[in-house]
Amino acid sequence: MLTISHIRRLAHRLSPNELFTTRNCLSFGSRAAVDKALSRLVKFGEITRIARGVFAKFTANKVVYSPFQVASVKARAFGKQIFIHGLAAAKELNISSSDNNEPTFATNGSTSSFRCQDTVIHLVSVSPRKTHLEDKAAGLLVRAMWHLGKTKCTPKIVDIATSSFQRSDREDLRQSTWLMPAW
């Protein structure tokens, strides 16, 4: 019973839109006790299950969480980060018109996927070389180039992608040539 009290307190301290994970609660008791307490709190309507292992304080108005919010909370619980995937980076830089139907993010952790409400969120493992610049403009270009591949990545495409870069973005890119594909 003590575990459920700790989790209730945690949930009540959170703002209405803030998410928490099962891992945030593991200090309150054994894994079995935490899982049972979370299940009961969902059943009683005190918290809402957003995805496997991700919860929020129950609110009367239905809050819709973005896939990025859910994925980042879930990744952070495992000590990982998420980044914009190469396909989304290419679209953001106006060098690809392809659209991803399911939310996909790059991660410095393992490749995985999970269901969140009615969608499946994919986390795709990428090398540290591709995430070195994080989600800066130069980092987006690096991931977009890797995603497009050797045949589609032409000097014209790179010019289009870098046309909106500011001076600091161009400097980041110049200093990070070692991150570029060596085709």
Description:
The strands form two sheets. Strands 4-5-7-6 form a four-stranded mixed beta sheet. It has a three-stranded antiparallel beta sheet with strand order 1-3-2. The radius of gyration is 20 Å and the shape is elongated. The protein is an alpha+beta fold. The protein is built from nine helices and seven strands, in the order H-E-H-H-E-E-H-E-H-E-E-E-H-H-H-H. Helix 1 packs across helix 3 and helix 5 crosses helix 7.
List keywords for this structure.
183 residues, alpha+beta, 4-stranded mixed β-sheet, 3-stranded antiparallel β-sheet, elongated
C-alpha end-to-end distance? 60 Å
Shape, principal axes of CA atoms: elongated
Strand elements, count: 7
> Main sheet?
4 strands, mixed
Strand order of the largest sheet: 4-5-7-6
What is the overall pLDDT average? 92
Given as residue ranges, the uncertain stretches (5+ residues, pLDDT < 50) are: none
Give the SSE string.
HEHHEEHEHEEEHHHH
Radius of gyration: 20 Å
Q: How many helical elements?
A: 9
Short description:
Helices cover 44% and strands 17% of the residues. The chain contains nine helices and seven strands; from the N terminus they run H-E-H-H-E-E-H-E-H-E-E-E-H-H-H-H.
